[in-house]
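Hi Y.,

Following your request, here is the sequence exactly as I used it, all 309 residues.
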Amino acid sequence: MRRALLGSVALLTLGCGAHRAASPNSQGPAQDAAPAVSKTFPDTLLDESELVRIQARARAIVASEQGAIRASDLLSERQDLDTSGLGMFFTVARGNAWYSVFGHMEGGERFVPVYAYRAPVEFSEEMEALPVGELPASFDGLARAVNAATERTFKVHGRRQMNPVVFEDSDGITVYVMQGMTDPERFLLGGDFRFRFSLDGRTVREEVALHQGMIPVDMSEDAEGNHPTSSVHTHVLIAGPLETELSMVMLYPQLGTVCVGAHGQTVIYCMRPDGAIRALSLKRKDVVRELRGDGTFGSSEASSSPVDL
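Below is the corresponding structure, written out as tokens. Let me know if you'd prefer a different format.
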């Protein structure tokens, strides 16, 4: 099951149409413009530390989403489910556990949890119901940040099908907002943002549009009954692979290999469902840097092609 279940459960506007492609305009036209960002990038190879950061954050996004999907399934199965108090939900890691909380905002300031689930931090899919009185501390700051991030994304792209993914650390909150999807044969890449907030969720410290628009990927069968095994698209705002894209490939291996690159660059990056990232030189026609799915780096000598990556 997917987070789309929540749409029928509570008409939630957050995380409701998880990860299957829909027409970019299916929820109405965009209402605001994404921030202007230079489209000229230096033609350089990302260093190893940046590839490691991207892979690690993508794995964290995958864990969060898997926990959110499982919590959504459990919520929909409740015999005592009352949707009247549900308006938003999010999943976050705190200490040694993941928490999925469902509730609503009061006055735009205070988050009121109605249902909650908890899983071990190592196994986000092992969600179990938790009395809201046992939740650790307050979730007000997180809820403010998620609410502000999704409203901003809606103003840009005009779709209420969004999947927020939130992380907190000692000095702030990071919220990724990705587009939700419902069509089993069409995926939607792009339309995503990364935000940084203060710990109280009231101040936006950074807003980064990760793509200029949304890119439909058709996974339906061709005339011979075959499905695509790879795809290539160009970034228009960020040079290099993104944690949001890698997490999508890992969550939905039917996407196959997804290769990305900026206009005019001679290096493209190919992401695989196991989390591997390979940098391919279009000039040399070989792999110049490889981060394997296990987090180690491989030889850059083996020649390959984008489809084989």
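The longest helix spans residues 48-76.

Thanks again,
Q.
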